[in-house]
Design brief:
It contains six helices and no strands. The chain has one domain. It is mostly helical. The model has no long low-confidence stretch (mean pLDDT 83). The two termini are 31 Å apart.
Length: 130
Amino acid sequence: MTFTIDANFEPRDPAQLTDAWQLDPLDDERGDYIVVDRVDIVRIACVAAETGARFQRDGLAQDPMDWMLSASDLFAGWPPIEACRRKDACSLAILVHGLGLPADIAPTTLNSIFAEHGLALAESNEEWLA
């Protein structure tokens, strides 16, 4: 089965994405379309599982779905559900939650922690979804 979708798949402004993800999963509303590979879905699922486990383990009051769907400074304003389709962002989210770092850690703080231990991010997070 094949079908054609007449839609714009250009990257959106990160500020618009938070509103675009405010969907009720039990409603018939479909939202707009995005293109994902199977590996994208696996990465998002891994980050969602790690986020939920971490919030439960640490007794955090924040809702893990709220974290997944809200704009994040860690990912240059992109919601984690969008950013974590990329390998680098997925790894970073798992690292942040696995180490119990603040879920809203500033990239500069994270870079300082990495630099103290002789580590560096592989690429600028502003390029993650380019």
